[in-house]
Specification:
By secondary structure, the chain is α+β, with helices and mostly antiparallel strands. Among the domains are: 2-175, Helix Hairpins (Orthogonal Bundle); 358-442, Alpha-Beta Plaits; 454-500, no CATH class. Helix content is 58%, strand content 16%. It contains ten helices and twelve strands. It has helices at residues 2-62, 69-105, 110-151, 156-175, 201-231, 237-262, 269-301, 341-346, 373-386, 421-442, and strands at 178-188, 191-200, 309-312, 315-322, 326-331, 336-340, 349-351, 358-367, 397-403, 408-417, 462-465, 496-499. The strands form four sheets. It has a five-stranded antiparallel β-sheet with strand order 6-5-4-3-7. Strand 3 and strand 4 form a beta hairpin. The longest helix has 61 residues, at 2-62. The radius of gyration is 50 Å and the shape is elongated.
Length: 500
């Protein structure tokens, strides 16, 4: 029984090997047929080149005046250029086929012999085409040499015409320069065939021109729409920005597809660029995507809005714009700051005008001891209440804050509507001017620092009083109030020591 199983396994292996050999042989035969068909097509092209060469030589010999030698010369150059590209390609294929022949000749088996015969047919087809390429190339080179000799004998005007034609042909060759090829599947008669599409420089330039022009028109249109939506339809600026962002991205995507269609660029180019885009996304698109999504979230949730006064880690200003990658904040000193959108979501952000534009301000003032505190309170309340920038509701609050060293300190709180931080500074300055004016009119003194001096000595101070003229004090006398100072007294001519 074990022997039977081994025999069955061996038979299966032999049958599987036979199937694999047949598949390899049929595949090689299919490649050979494809090569032969391709060589026949190329042979037809070479026949066309050869026929054109003889035809143009005949026309030039019989009717030279009506022949455009510049056009004829450019066509010959293009044909020679194509042949120059064909030769290394087919020579490389021939070397590969010869290597396969050598590899299979080393194995003595019917299967390898059949492969050798098939590959030899391929090699023969390549050799025939290479020989034809050399023949046509020699013919075109001789014809080009003859044209060069004849063109030197042409008048100066004709030579200038030929040079101009050559320049135009050179520019045309640059315009049609093939940058890369893209494989595009095409269904013909129910079969999927891969078509090799070349992407030329002209395709890319046309696509970029359409894209740039469309972007300019799109930006102008979105700005006009924003102004119209705000002025006529009374849309909120944040709503307009959000709508414009989505509309802009959709229009850009459509514009890219339109540019590719008009430039005849297949969609499979994205597969060609997929690897490069993936690498770029891996290295640099993480932060960009984070900021992009953060900008969308800011426009939808609206934790900050256009025109808000925000403070992002010490940077305070007005939010002017929420862009794709960053937001534009203008500080109150006129400096523009670009803050990544991710920072507005991930870091601590103070929005001074989130719910409304009402902010509380305050200022402090100290009056001298002995001032009428009720009058001070009333004056502060009236000054703040009567200012045009402060709000009546909530009404101002005046607090007697502290008995300080040199003053009675008062603080007044008030509310006002601001559009910038400078509004608070201007209002506080106006209030201080008015408070100082009202205090001066009411005889209330704004306190200033005062100090009491205490002298600590171990013995009493000695005061000496001298008689005589005050205009000519003794040279040894000090000033009054100091040790040794003199003062006139009723006891003339006597010095008295007065202990202090």
């Amino acid at each position: 029984l074990m022997k039977t199983d081994a025999e069955q396994t061996q038979a299966q292996r032999e049958r599987l090997q036979t199937i694999e050999n047949n598949f390899e042989l049929r595949q090689a035969q299919l490649e050979t047929v494809q090569v032969q068909v391709e060589m026949l097509r190329l042979s037809q092209t070479l026949l066309d080149y050869e026929a054109y060469s003889w035809k143009s030589r005949y026309e030039l010999a019989t009717n030279r005046e009506k022949v455009d030698t510049a056009d004829m010369y450019s066509k010959i150059l293009r044909a020679m250029d194509k042949i120059e590209h064909f030769e290394p390609y087919f020579q490389s294929n021939l070397s590969h086929v010869n290597a396969l022949i050598d590899q299979n000749q080393r194995i003595d088996s019917p299967h390898n012999k059949a492969l050798v015969e098939t590959y030899q047919e391929q090699a023969e087809a390549y050799v025939q085409v290479l020989n034809r390429l050399k023949q046509v190339k020699r013919l075109l080179e001789r014809w080009k040499q003859e044209l060069d000799e004849q063109r030197t004998e042409l008048p100066l005007a004709d030579q200038l015409h030929d040079k101009t034609h050559e320049l135009m042909n050179w520019l045309e060759s640059i315009w049609d320069f093939e940058l890369f090829t893209v494989d595009e599947p095409v269904i013909i008669n129910g079969q999927v065939i891969t078509d090799h599409r070349g992407i030329t420089l002209s395709n890319m330039l046309i696509a970029f021109s359409i894209l740039i022009l469309g972007m300019v028109v799109l930006r102008f249109s979105t700005k006009r729409f924003s102004a119209l939506a705000i002025s006529r339809f009374k849309w909120h600026p944040n709503r307009v920005v959000l709508f414009n962002k989505w509309l802009y991205y959709l229009m850009v995507a459509g514009l890219v597809l339109l540019a590719m269609g008009m430039a005849d660029i297949p969609m499979t180019i994205f597969a060609f660029l997929g690897g490069a885009l993936a690498i770029a996304a891996g290295f640099g698109a993480r932060n960009l995507l984070n900021n992009f999504l953060s900008g969308i979230i800011l426009l939808i949730e609206r934790p900050v809005k256009l025109g808000d006064i925000v403070d992002v880690e010490g940077t305070r200003g007005t939010l002017e714009r929420i862009g794709i990658r960053c937001s534009h904040v203008r500080r109150f000193d006129g400096i523009d700051i670009l803050i990544p959108n991710g920072d507005l979501l991930e870091k601590n952000v103070i929005n001074w005008t989130l719910s409304n534009r009402q902010l509380r301000g305050s200022l402090s003032v100290g009056v001298a001891y002995g001032s009428p505190t009720e009058a001070v309170r009333d004056i502060l309340f009236e000054v703040v209440r009567d200012h045009p920038s402060t709000l009546p509701v909530p009404e101002p609050i005046v607090l007697f804050e502290d008995f300080a060293d040199s003053a009675l300190n008062f603080r007044v709180f008030y509310w006002l509507t601001v559009s910038s931080e400078m509004d608070m500074y201007i209002t506080a300055s106006d209030l201080r001017f008015e408070i100082e004016h009202r205090f001066r009119g009411a005889g209330i003194t704004i306190a200033f620092p005062q100090r009491d001096m205490h002298l600590d000595t171990s013995t009493p101070l000695q005061v000496t009083v001298h008689s005589g003229s005050l205009e000519h004090p003794p040279s040894t006398a000090g000033s009054l109030g100091k040790p040794g100072a003199t003062k006139p007294s009723s006891s003339a001519g006597k010095n008295e020591a007065i202990p202090v």
